[in-house]
Amino acid sequence: MVQVISTEKAPKAIGPYSQAIVANGFVFLSGQIPLDASTGQVNQGSIAEQTKTVLTNLKAVLESAGSDISKVVKTTVYLKDMQDFEEVNRVYGEFFTSNKPARATVQVARLPKDVGVEIDAIACCD
User: Fold this and answer.
1) Which helix (H) or strand (E) covers residue 32, if one does?
2) What gap in Å lies between CA 76 and CA 60, rounded to an integer?
3) Looking at residues 14-23, what average pLDDT do you find?
4) Where are the domains of the chain?
5) What is the pLDDT of residues 44-58, one digit of tens each?
6) Class assignment of domain 2-124?
């Protein structure tokens, strides 16, 4: 059985996709960019502030799916500039304190709305 996840506590999808899908005991989260959930506006702050917004949004989607940040098993971090890696990694570590999921980090040519970071995730779901 497949369940579509949608929550007002995270930004609405800006295209033809779901915030997340629950299937076979896992939550597959679409990439989140630093959009404010209440306004839909891009967080234009520092890369640290953008990363915090992204991870806060991912956390909200996880909770809506009946999971949480401690159950994340894999993430992919997309960076506009690999020079931001250290700062993104610092904020990322504040969210993933005890559970450190497998991760890939890549630099990309461009991200939606020209933001600096996007993160997607896969988590276990009870």
Assistant:
1) strand 26-32
2) 17
3) 94
4) 2-124
5) 999 999 999 999 999
6) alpha beta
